[in-house]
Amino acid sequence: MRLYAADSLPGELVTPLRTQGRKPAPPLSVSTEFLDPAGKVKVPTRESFVGRRRQLQSCLRTLTQSTEEIGVLIYGMGGLGKSSLAARLCDRLPNFQRVVLVGRIDEPSLVSRLVEKLDDNEQRKQLQNPDEELRFRFKRVFQQLWEAGKDPFLLVLDDFEVNLELTSPPAPLLQGEGSLIPPFPRREGGLGGLGRLQPIAAEVLTALVWAIRETYTNHWLILTCRYDFEFSQLQYFYKQPLEGMRGADLRKKCNRLEAFGAKSQVDEALKSQARRLADGNPRLLEWLDKILQNSTVDQVAILNRLEVDAVELREQVLAEALLQQMDETMGEMLSQGLVFELPVPREALTAVCENIPNLADYINRAVALGLLEVSPDKSLRVPRILPLTLPTHVETLHQQAAEVLYRLWRGDTKTTPEEQQLEIHRLALFGKQGEIASTVGSDLTTYWNQKSRFRETIYLCKSTLDIVESDKILFNLARAEQEIGEIEQADQHYQQALELCSATDEEAKATIIHNQASTYLDKGEIDEAITLYYRSLEINERTENSYNQAAIFHELGRCYSKKREFDKALSLYQKSLEIKECIGDVINKSSTLQCLGTVYARKGDRDKALFYFYQALQIEEEFGNETGKGKASILMQMGQLAYSEKDFVTARKYLQKSFEIFQQIESPNAEKVKEIINRIEN
């Protein structure tokens, strides 16, 4: 069980020192054992570590439950937090003797560190015996520790890439009719053209793995390395790639940094630019955080320079030897992969790189080198920190990308996560794929309108209409414009949607006419609105759409209420209410109850008005939209009723609550409510 808190804990969570019977505190964090070349601690403390939950869970599952693997290999580009993840794993496994070696490994250094952890003098002598082969010394000591019930070792070999012999990749060779011989020949201990594991390190790692497997003991190994590499003993390791932080992990990381945090005084545009430049890399975020905090430098100039030439950024996380591994063909593949901003399935990357020979080999090699990020779900993404640009044939590339993601991510469902739908839509716009942009955009903006995200809806609809005419997009645009008070524009777009709508799609036509009628009602052109509502009602009666019929009777009630024909309005509202009760439309029932209350209030029947208002408020509190718009509207009506009766205390209470909700969702009603509150206070 864990407790998650914000900036402060709710109280003491441990027994005070010197309390009788108090158990010893858990071991201190192992973070102080992870040192950079300058001798400084390079990983966060246990308390300041954020994110990487899925990677932690996967590695812990291996280190506590696996019967096949004896360790984990954590790999990825510099700055992603490999050492930090290893340190956190150590903290989560307190019942081990933790040993950390940073950088180059050999027999003397490893033996020396293990000897420090042994209490038994005879075991120390056995481990240091130069006359016996290393693997047998490890085996004997590991077995003895196990039999004596001692805590097993958890060995961390950090920055393991220094134990690789880097070489330049061999040039591809032509064979036959222009086909390529696989350009990266495989060899034991090597990653194709990257290099091989140095003999001394290979000997030590082989001895460790053999001894642990031979003794069947619970000793474990954690390797952190910038690259995945080929080595026979790695078949016994779980491989955990790391990617740049995104989503909740990125938000948590930024909140811990002064310049990016919620209380930061740094300009939002600068923070956004810096976040984009960092591309989710924790080390780059920390580096840019220092720049944004330094008021003595021209921060705008520095960030703009990094936009043009990111050499300084790359120096923070990329080794020069790594960039030398990126030959022309791999560079072409990665450049084409830049078309995707989100991690995508391997099949998607394959689709846009179909012109690359031996593509599977190049993808595998790029993953191993950390030139392709790998998400927990095996999706791939090209880091933006690489010195690459999109190819010239961008429209075709975006077209291919939109088509493949639409097929892979959407299929026949509409449950695709929002960020994935936005990625498909972005690609469709650049690739001039109007049908895809319209379909995805329609789904997105329908949802956004329901959530009162009207400004976002308007922006996306207008960008979609730049490449395609769509009645659904025009309809959602008009709805959003109507909600923020742009009635004339909404009316025009409803009319355009109606003209584009298929003659056979009667349900869509009825819905557009219904909404267009509401714009006339908003403009005070009541008779025109009534005419349109009856046109829509005629279609819905023909198609037997009870849901829409109830909505139209409700709107007709509004029309006659505005004309002060209250008995006619009450009759129509009651008809709407009966249908809604019959079909179980509880949520929309509240709006009709509210309107009934409004009519009775205008007729001077306070008791009946409050009777309906309270029923409506109860439904909104239990089933209403999360934005609270319906609740705010009812509270406004109740406040106005109290105000009209000069009960100013009650009126202000209801109106203030209503104002806060309307203001939060940017509703024009916020100003109306504020005016009444001001009259009360003055």
Oligomerization: single chain
Helix residue percentage? 55-70%
Q: What portion of residues belong to β-strands?
A: 5-15%
Q: Which residues form runs of ≥5 with pLDDT under 50?
A: 170-193
Largest sheet features = 5 strands, parallel
Q: Helical stretch count? A: 30
Shape descriptor reads elongated
As a whole number of angstroms, the C-alpha radius of gyration is 33 Å
* Number of β-strand runs: 11
Sheet with the most strands: spatial strand order: 2-3-8-1-9
Q: What is the distance, rounded to the nearest whole angstrom, between the alpha carbons of the first and last residues? A: 54 Å
Task: Look at the helices and sheets and give the structural class.
Answer: alpha/beta
What's the average pLDDT?
Answer: 86
The gist of it:
By secondary structure, the chain is an alpha/beta fold. The protein has 30 helices and eleven strands.
Explain this structure.
It is a single chain. The chain contains 30 helices and eleven strands. The strands form four sheets. A five-stranded parallel beta sheet has the order 2-3-8-1-9, with helices on both faces. A two-stranded antiparallel ribbon has the order 4-7. A two-stranded antiparallel sheet has the order 5-6. The chain is elongated and about 105 Å long. The protein starts with 52 loop residues before the first helix and ends with a helix.
Note the main attributes of this structure:
alpha/beta, 6% strand, 682 residues
